[in-house]
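Hey Z.,

So I finally got round to the flavin mononucleotide thing we talked about over coffee. Here's the setup:
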Amino acid sequence: MTALADSSQPPPLFTAFSIRKVTFRNRIVVTPMCQYVADDGHVQLWHCAHHSRFALSGIGGAIVEATGVTRDGRITLGCLGIYLDEHVGGLKRIVDIYHSQGIPVGIQLSHAGRKASAAVPLKGAAPLADADPDRAWTAMAPSAVALTDRWPIPREMTEHDIETIIEAFGIAAERACRAGFDFLEIHGAHGYLVNSYFSPIANRRSDSWGGAPLENRMRFPLGVAAEIRRRIPAEMPVFYRASVVDGLEGGVTIEDTAALARELKACGVDLIDCSSGGITGPSGRAFERPAPGYLVPYAREVRERAGVPTMAVGLIVEAGQANAIVANGDADLVAMGRQLLAEPSFPYHAAQALGHPKPESVLPESYAFFLERRNFG
Ligand SMILES: Cc1cc2nc3c(=O)[nH]c(=O)nc-3n(C[C@H](O)[C@H](O)[C@H](O)COP(=O)(O)O)c2cc1C
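And the result:
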């Protein structure tokens, strides 16, 4: 698996990748990871410390966690928000951290839909209506269908709600531009609002925004993508995180997602970030027992079928594995989460393991200079 073919060249994982005007200096991207410590959506010092760890680690790019485009669109009370102009300053601090190291950074724009109003994971992730009823709110969704029998029934969105939320995504995108983000990601996965419009399991509407026809279920995701594209500079890339399959009988299939990806591409979406699951249960889990690289085949299939760049994610934990994803053309970018939490130095260690001609060069100069001269004797 380990590519040592030409030791004068960086391995595929450490080659640059460009979309529109943004260049990732290597293929390792920090996947969005909620920290659940925001206060009314505002960035805290923790977020800055968390992102600084990655900014100094040699990654190629990063995506800030799911960030609510409306206050009620947050998953929990600890989620970041971009529903106030006052959020821009805090988000800019995160952007500045990455930009100080020349690293492009995106933000995941999100509406939680029927999964909104949950307790934070550390407090059980149960419906807030059970855990803290005074602070709970009523979630909205394409249909008045609860996530599971343990969850409250959401309010079915009116045509006016649909227009308002699509516009909120657009306004959020403009705020993200003001904060200095280099690219955006639409959260279209894990059973949250955009995903729930696309999935026949959550979307039972009988109007033009839902029901059996794929065309109807695509309307909301495409509306969000078009609204965002209309409001941002042409040089700014837009990613879309999809749950490629629901993993449930009667749910979204790979064919559905490939069709959506083609339409998203026509709306100006540049890359599909290929996750899975979450339409009725925990995010990202369409499989009983995820194994390393379990979602990579989806990234490859979407890439081939829709002719669109993809990002692979899901238990990518080892240098050879990450490198092979790029070398084999499975995906263009490799998103990593928990392995980077455990080992922020993964890019440097991977560069060493893969025979990069100058592994230290992936790190900031102030570190690289001394590491190059380190002698173990
Ligand atoms: C702490 C934590 C928070 C997460 N928050 C988000 C999020 O904000 N948006 C999202 O799309 N996925 C989120 N995820 C899922 C990750 O982006 C990723 O898809 C998943 O962890 C699988 O990648 P990994 O095996 O490299 O961790 C989160 C995962 C973790 C562990």
